[in-house]
Specification:
Distance between the termini: 84 Å
Strand content: under 5%
Structural class: mainly alpha
Number of strands: 0
Length: 1029
């Protein structure tokens, strides 16, 4: 409660700020009445108050004053206007009436803690006091009995706490008196007569001694008054305060600063200082300000100050005045202001609030001061540079690092304040980043504080600040970072990766871009910089590849990716086959990026092919073994694209599909993103053969055999043999495992089975390297073989040939007896039984991995087809209908529900896109293509009975209606109706099983078409009739 109470005077000074409404219903406004406040609205018009009000007039007064205390600002202002008009408008009310309202309502209401009563009542009092003792001076003409001393006495009388009330009532009365005094100050009536201010000042000083928690509020009132008085009165006031011992308090410091800012040449008291911010005062100032953040609400007047008290979340007003002083000084002379502020901050804040002997409450206040300075810096970099001082940064990093630290939440709030500052003013990013990563900070600031502060502020980098940011991040000597070489490069790559993810500014006309600059530095670090340790170079390249994958997602950043690839400096031998191919790829990439050679039709394909060349070069530097094959295929695509007219580039689509399928098969996010971007650029060049290459993988089995068909062209005989083994295992299970353990042949076969457990490189769909995917199974297989050798050695009492040196001599080498042979035989049987089970487990895992690989590949193929549908169905490309049947077959044959759902959704999207392009069918589709669509519709109707599920029937119906709508538009209505009639007749006779929804959808479509035709016919008839008339 104390914290909230201490804010109320400040709230009164800012009454124009919006306040929160209460969620509870308003209380009744009349005594004993059950009517709501809505009944008072009839009396909302201004009307003079009377000396002897009737019952209705009293109800009106109650309603108005109830509304004056509302938490709704608009209601308070409305009620205040009516009350002021009712008292003073026109000739005004009689003096007794005004006295009754002042004493019985307004001043008395200031002591009420109900809702926002003090704010509303202060609003009315300020206006009335202004008219009584201000320019109109009604107290001297009409209300002669209401002298200044009498009105001030009313305030004291009605807000006197007395000695009989409880603690809360006492607080309410003190706050009421505080608000009343502020009304006198804000009314601007105290300085025409010096005695008025002297009387109010006496009251303020007396009130400040009542409770220590009132001192800051009383000090703020004096600061407000300083801004209104003349220099002579200000000098007398400061002398009076010096005599009262107020100077060496936070309130005194604030008053002195306010006075000097208003009257720089005024005569100041000799003791204890002329200006609290001058160099000579900095010795004693820290002691004065260190407790400015204490919550002294529980201190009693006259009791000696405690060493440590609770801290409050409200910052003392003196810090706002200090900030305003240095901002004003910086506007005149920035260098002088910077030096003064640096000295002030170091000696007062850093050494005062964050020293080793500072209490937790003082450090808490220090964090609030830090935030306030950042918030009010107003692009004054000299303030930002100084506040990141040594002790503060040490405390900030220590407290933010762990949640169990006492000031952890305060430190996190301070870090969020840093983020908010950069968000408000991105130009401060280089300055703040330099303070966090060097000077008194640490290079790995985020790791040190266990936050993402640097990561978040880097997203505000701009084309104007990126050079300074990169200069801060790149150190000429890594040892200056305080980290070892490996950790330095890890941190640097993380920062560059974050910058490369910053969206490009569309309004930026500069040739410099944030992601482009960052990715070039990251690429140079990973591929060209020879000073980077070899141990971390692979990790840097992985990070660079991930950055490329993010860039590819944003087409506007296409040039940055290609530019980064071109910036790689490598010593390539043109005489070498691979080196010459890569150099040639560089030249073709530059050619494709030449904007002078782009046309409207070729721009997108040329950029897409350039992207493929960039990826191929990147694969070369990543030592991909298949890069030569990719470069050869790209060369053929390049020749077809550049050597011939774009519309006549026959065969380019087939080459591209082969390349893209090989890319999506790789467990790489970059390859997946690139394939989608490239495919989107070439959809208009797709041919029927290329589309078939793309849809054929959807029909492959989701098994090891399907994986072999997709990804391998060698060892077909071995694949067939493995397939037969799989079938045998499926048919017979594990029942015969114990029956085939009697001969040495089985032992050899089992060993071979164990050694053939290595999965192929395509088994995993993760983004990790192939080496990582295969090394773990290989280690497991080797461990299993070693365990088998050990078990056999123990059972047979022998050892492997390479273990002769470790073997012990045996004195007994006689032959084993029959019983011993039986025991050995039983042990061997047990060993091979467990080995067979382990081998069977590995086979199951291989089958599962193979299935997941095929499913993931189909998902990626569907992603490409979705792009094709989105672009080509929307422009009514007849070739788009070729994807419908493969999608239906996939829905029917797949055992994976997500695949089936994805295919169903694609058919729905096809239908929606087609509806938008219906008008273009009459001009773009040929007669030959119409006949092909009739055949396609027959195939769909043949496919529909093959699965009885509702989802499949819905998909088949949607595909059928999509084709039918085109054929009807091309006057093939009879063929469509005959086909539906034939299918329905077969269904009726029981020859096929089709869901009834297949035909009900057709009838609904016919009804919709008939209604549209009837409406069009009626409109045409009406138009014809109108023309005849």
């Amino acid at each position: 409660m104390a914290n909230k109470r201490k804010r109320t005077p400040r709230e009164a000074a800012n009454d124009n700020l919006p306040s929160q409404k209460r969620s509870k219903k308003e209380t009744p406004v009349t005594n004993g009445s059950t009517k709501t406040r809505a009944s008072s609205k009839v009396q909302d018009k201004p009307a003079p108050f009377t000396e002897h009000p009737t019952v209705e007039e009293r109800k009106r007064e109650l309603a108005l004053y109830e509304k004056l205390g509302s938490e709704d600002q608009s209601e308070r202002i409305e009620a205040a206007s009516i009350i002021i008009a009712g008292l003073l408008e026109g000739n005004g009310v009689e003096e007794p009436v005004l006295f009754r309202h002042l004493a019985g309502r307004l001043f008395r209401g200031l002591a009420s803690g109900r809702n926002a009563s003090r704010l509303g009542f202060s609003l009315v009092l300020t206006e009335i006091l202004g008219q009584l003792f201000g320019e109109k001076y009604l107290a001297g003409s009409k209300y002669t009995g209401l002298t200044f001393d009498k009105v001030l006495g009313i305030l004291v009388e009605k807000t006197d706490a007395g000695g009989s009330g409880n603690g809360q009532e006492e607080r309410d009365h003190y706050f009421g008196q505080l608000f009343g005094i502020e009304c006198f100050v804000r009314a601007g009536i105290l300085f025409s007569d010096k005695s008025r201010w002297q009387a109010v000042l006496d009251l303020v000083l007396k009130l400040s001694q009542k409770k220590s928690w009132l001192k800051s509020q009383c000090g703020w009132i004096i600061v407000q008054a300083i801004s209104q008085m003349e220099v002579e009165l200000a000098e007398e006031t400061l002398q009076r305060l010096a005599d009262e011992g107020v100077v060496k308090t936070p309130e005194g410091v604030g008053i002195w600063i306010a006075a000097l800012d208003r009257f720089p040449d005024m005569k100041m008291p000799k003791q204890p200082w002329r200006s609290p911010l001058e160099a000579g005062s900095l010795t004693s100032l820290p002691t004065v300000l260190k407790d400015s953040g204490r919550d002294t609400s529980n201190d009693q007047a006259g009791i000696k100050k405690q060493k440590q008290g609770n801290w409050t979340a409200q910052l003392h007003f003196v810090w706002n005045l200090i900030l305003a002083h240095f901002l004003k000084l910086g506007a005149k002379d920035k260098s002088d202001a910077a030096e003064q502020f640096k000295q002030f901050w170091k000696r007062v804040v850093d050494e005062g609030f964050f020293s080793k002997t500072s209490s937790d409450s003082q450090k808490f206040s220090g964090f609030m001061i830090f935030q306030r300075m950042l918030e009010g810096a107003a692009s004054q970099t000299f303030i930002v540079e100084s506040v990141f001082s040594q002790n503060l940064m040490t405390c900030l990093m220590n407290q933010a690092a762990k949640e169990d630290r006492y000031l952890h939440r305060a430190a996190i709030k301070a870090l969020k304040g840093i983020e908010a500052t950069v968000d408000r003013d991105p130009s401060l990013l280089p300055t703040i980043l330099r303070q966090l990563l060097s000077h008194n900070g640490v290079y790995n600031f985020d790791q040190r504080t266990n936050t993402k502060t640097v990561d978040k502020i880097l997203q505000h980098a701009t084309s104007e600040s990126i050079k300074k940011v990169l200069k801060t991040l790149q150190l000429k000597d890594f040892s200056k970072s305080g980290l070892d070489e490996t950790k330095y490069y890890q941190s640097l790559s993380s920062y560059l990766f974050r910058l490369s993810s910053v969206p490009a500014d569309e309004e930026n006309t500069s040739s410099v871009s944030v992601p482009g600059s960052a990715i070039e530095v990251l690429t140079e670090l990973a591929y060209s910089n020879q000073s980077v340790p070899a141990s971390i170079r692979e990790a840097l390249r992985t990070k660079t590849t991930s950055a490329f994958a993010k860039l590819v997602k944003r087409p506007e950043d296409f040039g940055h990716l290609c530019g980064a690839i071109l910036s790689i400096k490598a010593d390539l031998d043109p005489e070498d086959e691979i080196g010459g191919a890569v150099l040639e790829a560089y030249e073709k990439l530059k050619d494709l990026l030449d904007p002078a050679k782009d046309t409207k039709d070729t721009k997108a394909p040329r950029q897409a092919l350039a992207l493929l060349y960039a990826v191929a070069i990147l694969q070369f530097y990543n030592e991909d073994p298949d890069v030569m094959n990719l470069l050869e295929e790209l060369e053929e695509c390049y020749d077809k694209l550049v050597g011939e007219d774009i519309q006549g580039g026959e065969g380019i689509a087939e080459f591209l599909v082969e390349i893209l399928l090989a890319m999506v098969a790789r467990p790489s996010s970059l390859m997946r993103q690139v394939s989608q971007q490239v495919f989107e650029a070439f959809t208009n060049l797709m041919s029927s053969e290329a589309l078939k290459l793309l849809t054929d993988p959807l029909a492959v089995e989701e098994s090891a055999k399907g994986q072999q068909a997709l990804f391998s062209t060698e060892d077909e005989d071995m694949a067939n043999a493995e397939g037969s083994d799989d079938e045998h295992d499926h048919d017979h299970g594990n029942d015969d495992d114990e029956e085939e353990l009697d001969s040495d042949v089985e032992i050899v076969n089992l060993e071979e089975a164990g050694s053939d457990d290595e999965p192929s490189d395509n088994d995993s769909d993760s983004d990790k390297d192939d080496d990582d995917n295969t090394s773990e199974p290989e280690n497991e297989n080797q461990e299993a073989l070693d365990a088998l050798d050990t078990a056999l050695a123990e059972a047979l009492g022998s050892h492997r040939l390479d273990k002769d040196a470790d073997a012990t001599d045996s004195a007994d080498e006689s032959d084993m007896s029959d019983s011993e042979m039986m025991e050995v035989d039983a042990k061997l049987a047990e060993i091979f039984k467990h080995r067979a089970k382990a081998a069977n487990t590995n086979k199951k895992k291989e089958k599962k991995d193979a299935k997941e690989t095929v499913i993931n590949f189909k998902h990626r193929v569907l992603d490409l087809l979705a792009i094709f549908i989105k672009k080509e169905a929307a422009i009514a490309n007849p070739l788009a209908f070729e994807v419908l049947l493969p999608l239906l077959e996939l829905i029917r044959t797949t055992t994976t529900k997500p695949l089936a759902n994805k295919a169903c959704e694609m058919i729905n999207q096809f239908s929606k896109a087609l509806k938008k392009a219906k008008s273009s069918f009459t001009t773009e589709i040929s007669d030959e293509q119409v006949e092909e669509l009739v055949a396609k519709l027959q195939e769909v109707h043949s496919e529909a009975p093959k699965d009885g599920s509702h989802a499949f029937a819905k998909a088949a119906s949607t595909a059928s209606l999509a084709i039918a709508s085109v054929l009807v538009a091309r006057e093939k209505t009879e063929e469509v109706f005959e086909l539906y009639a034939d299918s329905q007749l077969k269904w009726f006779k029981g020859e096929v099983k089709i869901q009834p929804a297949f035909f009900s959808d057709w009838l609904n479509w016919c009804q919709s078409h008939a209604s549209a035709s009837a409406s069009a016919s009626a409109s045409a008839s009406a138009s014809a009739a109108a023309m005849q008339e």
